[in-house]
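ok posting inputs for the nicotinamide-adenine-dinucleotide job
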Amino acid sequence: MNVAVVGIGRIGLPVAATIASKGHRVFGCDVNASLVERVNRGENPIPDEAGLGAMLKEVVASGRFSATTGTAEAVAQCDVVLFAVRVDVDDAGRADLQYLFAAAEEAGKGLKPGALCIFDTTLPVGTTRRELAPRLEVGGRKLGRDFHVAFSPERLLMGRVIEDLTKYPKVVGGVDSGAGERAAAFYREVFGGDVLQLQSAEAAELSKLAEGAYRDLNIALANELAMVADIHGIDVTEVIRAANSQPYSHIHVPGTGVGGHCIPVYPRFLMQGEGPSALSALGRDVNDAMPGYVVDRAAELVGGLTGKRVLILGLTFRPDVAVTFHTNAVDLLREFERRGAVVRGHDALLSTDGVRELGFEPADTLEGFDIAVVHSNHRQYATLDWAKVAPLIVDARNALDRSAIEAAGSRYLGVGRPATSA
Ligand SMILES: NC(=O)c1ccc[n+]([C@@H]2O[C@H](COP(=O)([O-])OP(=O)(O)OC[C@H]3O[C@@H](n4cnc5c(N)ncnc54)[C@H](O)[C@@H]3O)[C@@H](O)[C@H]2O)c1
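and the output
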């Protein structure tokens, strides 16, 4: 089978390589010409994606996978077209669909008779049917007669996409009659894992937003519990451990907000749909307020922040992955500076230019600060001598070994955890 994957970024590339590794001919289509060239040389542009380097080398060398900027020409040779172009939110909090629209319009020029188009990008409910399927109707082609459309969200964790592709079911829902069945059959064949076919594309779209909103709200609950724990001087981590020992409780970990382009984004997609969204909005507000809350707690411990030297370690949105979309490290920077602190940033996975792009002045040393905040606990930070870094270490994700920090002689402050006494 010939397959086109339109958008070969963090998600599209490992998906495309995996399909090629199963023996299919795959075309990776992207507007980024330098990315296309690198991929065609067999170079892996995402080194922190487990297993991708070796897989890519093999499928490029075998001729089963190639990348191109000629989307319409590649699509013209394919039975199935997957779309993995990213959708973000604009400044007003609405889905910014312009890149996906452009991709659909370009692919629509090439669709061959009977082609199946599957949108993998997370979308507001109704987008596939109302906005995307019509954009594929180029040159007199008609949905349901000349081509078919389904929606199937990617439910993958960056860094382990290849493993996750078969770990839990692929969810699919069709737009036109029979498209859902065809999409389900396609995924069963290429990935060999479970497929959950829902009644419609809208149901599949809502299921993905449900996952994201659930996690965002769950974290918001954990964050509120952390604030209650602070009032009473108790440790929220033991509270959550106790609550979760009951099989129906799955409370997540409190922290300084939620980053990445999934969990903080999808509740906003829900909020712009036609249904109720009071809870999603509330969860967003609670999580967005966490950087300011934690910075205030640190300020109380050191008697105000004016002129204090603060180091923020780990600026990516998550440990051990070099991705900075909607990272809360930037919110921490803003909140510390607002209170008069002098902030430096460091990330073991980013260049100094990458650190600057986020608005940070890069740290030239990791020692001698008044406060250090570990935002993303990259494995490179495991060997730091905390006493030299700062007398107060703020654990933004409750991810550090508190006793190791205290044994080194620094104070510890977690989210919803009593600080070490002075
Ligand atoms: N990254 C994740 O962890 C994750 C997890 C689950 C789901 N998803 C979903 O996957 C989507 C894609 O995410 P990503 O991280 O791969 O994004 P990405 O930005 O890494 O990749 C998108 C790619 O699309 C390309 N592109 C843009 N416009 C194009 C066009 N008109 N034609 C062809 N290519 C075009 C870009 O050049 C880029 O290479 C997300 O919006 C999300 O809905 C992502």
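notes: The chain has a mean pLDDT of 96. The chain is about 40% helix and 15% strand.
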